[in-house]
Amino acid sequence: MLKKVLAGMFGAALIAGIGMTTAQAYDVKSAKLWVTAIAIGTPIEGAEIKVGDEECTTGKNGTCVFELRPGTYEISVHEHGGQSAHKEISLEEGNILFVSLDLGSKALHPSGSH
Question: What is the pTM of this model?
Answer without folding.
Answer: 0.71
